[in-house]
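Please, structure for the following, as tokens.
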Amino acid sequence: MNDHALDGYEISTDPARLDADRVHHWLSTDSYWAVDRPRGLQDRAVAGSLNFGLYESGSGRQAGYARVVTDHATFAWLCDVYICRDDRGKGLGTALVEAIADHMTPCGLSRLTLATKDAHGVYEKVGFRALVSPEQWMTLGLIDPGPVEI
């Protein structure tokens, strides 16, 4: 995939274009979900995922990143969506997520899921919505069980 996102930017799934140092820095220092994520763990996550890079067209500088964990048949999980602070406010996050949804649609997936604490509006623009039946979903926290309601 090599797609035009917005004027001056393009999206690619070419793993050779990823700036792994930059992506690791973004996620491990400036995200609430992956702070202090070790580089080795990040590299394993990238290796086992479909990765999307957002690049400045002229310079090739990476301006955003997202990855999808999927079997390309029934299920996909969108995660690690990040737009460089210098590039925010231009609609790039929405454009990146739209391109990912378009890329995954031909697979015939039942669903593309994600979790977010603070970017619901970005994803709603693309068509994401809250779980219809959250009581059907469960999670097993192997390292961190997450918040427990009392």
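The CA atoms of residues 104 and 134 lie 23 Å apart. The chain has four helices and six strands.
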